[in-house]
Design a protein that fits this description.
Mean pLDDT: 84
Helix content: 40-55%
CATH architecture of the largest domain: Alpha-Beta Complex
Number of strands: 6
CATH topology of the largest domain: Sufe protein. Chain: A
CATH class of the largest domain: Alpha Beta
Structural class: alpha+beta
Distance between the termini: 25 Å
């Protein structure tokens, strides 16, 4: 992903689109190799199509501050939809430059560069093992794309935006909202963009700190995926840093 100087800083510090997690089981179900690593406060998850040698999906998760969020988001921006070997060649300097081009300037660049280089090195080292696990499953992304998901996806795509939002609210009404209310919080579904990105605003006590909103985020996203569609991604409208 190429950035321009007009990309707003808040997109990297407070409004990440790649925040979340992937699991081995869902990667295997899609015929994709699952590589992941954690260095300090940041985890990176890549799903790689071995047939196309391409990183098709990328997410990160962190309980750290805005620099950690910005770093994870930038790594995923650069890696997603990139050839595998290009993604494995990402450097800390490249990520910092990517952020600065978008008018985001990290506080401790040297430390972040070392962290990023370690993250990428670990992901590259993990790939042969991930590929072996996928090979044992016998599943291939090209075959699965033809056989699964089309009917469920087609049903979702035929819905209007208001119908989609209503369906999402139905999925989280009850147990999820009740749990949030017990902690003095709630969640508002604000918008759905690009068909699959759900923009939400966390309110009350559950939005008061990054650790709380981080765990809440994962719970809500997993419920939506399970009850509505696995392809849906939750995007928090803002994070408290």
């Amino acid at each position: 992903m190429k950035m321009t100087a007009t990309t707003p800083k808040k997109e990297y510090g407070t409004s990440p689109k790649h925040r979340g997690v992937y699991f081995l089981e869902e990667a295997t179900a899609m015929g994709l190799a699952f590589v992941s690593t954690k260095v300090e406060d940041t985890k990176i998850f890549w799903l790689i199509d071995p047939e196309e040698e391409k990183v098709v999906k990328a997410k990160f998760f962190t309980y750290g501050g805005s620099d950690s969020v910005a770093t994870g988001e930038a790594i995923c921006d650069i890696a997603q939809d990139s050839p595998m070997q290009e993604a494995f060649s990402i450097t800390g300097e490249q990520v910092i430059s990517h952020l600065e081009q978008s008018n985001y300037y990290p506080f401790n660049k040297d430390s972040l560069i070392n962290q990023i280089n370690s993250l990428i090195a670990n992901l590259k080292q993990d790939y042969p093992v991930a590929l072996a696990k996928l090979s044992l499953s016998g599943k291939k992304a090209s075959e699965l794309k033809k056989a699964t998901g089309s009917a469920e996806d087609e049903k979702w795509l035929k819905l209007s935006k208001s119908e989609r939002i209503e369906l999402i609210n139905q999925a989280i009404d009850g147990q999820v909202r009740d749990a949030l209310a017990m902690d003095g919080g709630d969640i508002d579904i604000l918008d759905i963009k690009n068909d699959w990105d759900i923009y939400a605003e966390f309110q009350g006590a559950c939005s008061s700190c990054s650790a709380s909103i981080g765990s809440t985020f994962l719970v809500v996203e997993n419920v939506i995926k399970a009850k509505v569609n696995e392809r849906l991604t939750l995007v928090a409208n803002s994070f408290p840093w």
